[in-house]
Amino acid sequence: DGGITQSPKYLFRKEGQNVTLSCEQNLNHDAMYWYRQDPGQGLRLIYYSQIVNDFQKGDIAEGYSVSREKKESFPLTVTSAQKNPTAFYLCASTASGRRKQFFGPGTRLTVL
Amino acid sequence: KQEVTQIPAALSVPEGENLVLNCSFTDSAIYNLQWFRQDPGKGLTSLLLIQSSQREQTSGRLNASLDKSSGRSTLYIAASQPGDSATYLCAVNPSGSRLTFGEGTQLTVNP
Fold first, then answer.
1. What are phi and psi of B43, to 5 degrees?
2. Which of A6, A31, A90 lies at the smallest CB-CB distance from B44?
3. Most exposed residue of A72, B18, B49, B80, measured as fewest CB within 10 angstroms of its CB?
4. A 62-91 residues with CB < 8 A to B
5. What is the pLDDT of residues A21-52, one digit of tens each?
6. A98 pLDDT above the threshold of 80
7. What is the pLDDT of residues A45-90, one digit of tens each?
């Protein structure tokens, strides 16, 4: 089955730790995205990548980092510099800007 | 900067009612607009995508319209069912590369 997988589903982080969220897609999509969702709010764009080995900052990139070494993978690292990382993180991909975005099931990150 | 607003923030209706969800955006120069559904604690499911050159799209009981000049889109749900209960999100694509989301409308359909 084609789709987007995110792991883990739940993640707990201690203060000062870096954590990495996984996002993998087998849809052969060129573009991939990371969003953050806070309770009762819409999605805010963290980073996006339109092609392998290239990525751009979104609206709230501070405290996050990404890499795009393979077409199917776009991991997100939440660094200790991110002041309030507790949120629901969603990964998405699309074949092109004219096509629908498809989303993974999300990772819920909680800082202890 | 593009801003997207969805009204109402929450809506509760009895089963069987037809309903309309509203989405407005500040910059009419968009590439396309997409409506999504989100169930609690889950990812988003794409419902309808309207390109900037289109006026509406239909899928089953759902119909989405787009009026670029006035910066508005509506999602019409016919004969609502309890299974339609979810949060509905509108997103505009200003440049062909990224989406800007509204905060969503939380819909409850009561049996």
1. -75, -175
2. A90
3. B18
4. 88, 90
5. 999 999 999 999 999 999 878 899 999 999 99
6. no
7. 999 999 999 999 999 999 999 999 999 999 999 999 888 999 999 9
Residue of A29, A30, A43 best to disrupt the B interface, most CBs of B under 10 A:
A43
**Residue-level length of chain A:** 112
Within 8 A of B49 by CB-CB distance, chain A residues are 99-100
* Contact flag B98-A48 (C-beta cutoff 8 Å): yes
> B66-98 burial by CB neighbour count: b if 16+ within 10 A, else e?
bebeebbbbbebeebeeebbbbbbbbbbbeeeb
Q: How many CB pairs under 8 A join A and B?
A: 64
B32 close to B52: Cβ distance less than 8 angstroms: yes
Closest-CA distance of chain A to residue B61, Å: 19
- 3 state SS of A111: strand
Task: Pull the structure tokens for residue B72.
Answer: 């508005």
